[in-house]
Amino acid sequence: MVDENNRQGIAGALGRIPSGLFILTAAHEDRRGGMLCSWVQQLCFEPPMVSVAVAKGRPIMPLISESRRFGLCQLSKDDKVILRKFSAGVDSNEDPFLGFDLVHNATNIPVFANTLSYMECELASHLDVEGDHDLFVGRILSASTTGGEPIVHLRSNGLRY
């Protein structure tokens, strides 16, 4: 058990780990989903891989598990509309991509055409880390970048949303 003083130190230290803001996307059959996420990290050089942490029970989890694919769209400081759409959460009964320009790709992963960058990934591993999030590891199949400056996100308390 962690005492309260140590817990405050942990919260502050975790909150200072910088992260970008991404929209995690997936599709399976006729369902598409997306969510705002910030816990994304490069994992390997060869093959190129990334990891993303997803809170347990999020509606996107079965889409990733069933399709074995996911996308990551990095938001720039100018992506206000996409950020607003996904920061409030998305109703799992609606298609969150309606009205947005998407990249037409062979993988059928929904990725935004106008974000700072995107990666299309094949699921390499899904880990239950025995905490409140699961870890998805993806092998990058394709990616693209545009100009712009990424959003860098810091939390004041790394133990709360």
Counted by DSSP, the helix tally is 3
Distance between the termini: 21 Å
CATH class bucket: Mainly Beta
Question: Hey, roughly how much beta strand do the residues contain?
Answer: 35-45%
Structure description:
- It contains three helices and nine strands.
- The protein has helices at 4-15, 60-67, 80-87, and strands spanning 19-20, 22-28, 31-37, 40-44, 49-55, 69-74, 117-128, 133-145, 152-153.
- It has a seven-stranded antiparallel beta sheet with strand order 3-2-6-7-8-5-4, with helices on both faces.
- The longest helix is centred in the N-terminal third of the chain and has 12 residues, at 4-15.
- The protein is globular and about 50 Å long.
- The model has no long low-confidence stretch (mean pLDDT 92).
Quick overview of this protein structure:
With about 160 residues, this protein is an alpha+beta fold. It has three helices and nine strands, in the order αβββββαβαβββ. The strands form two sheets. A seven-stranded antiparallel sheet has the order 3-2-6-7-8-5-4, sandwiched between helices. A two-stranded antiparallel sheet has the order 1-9.
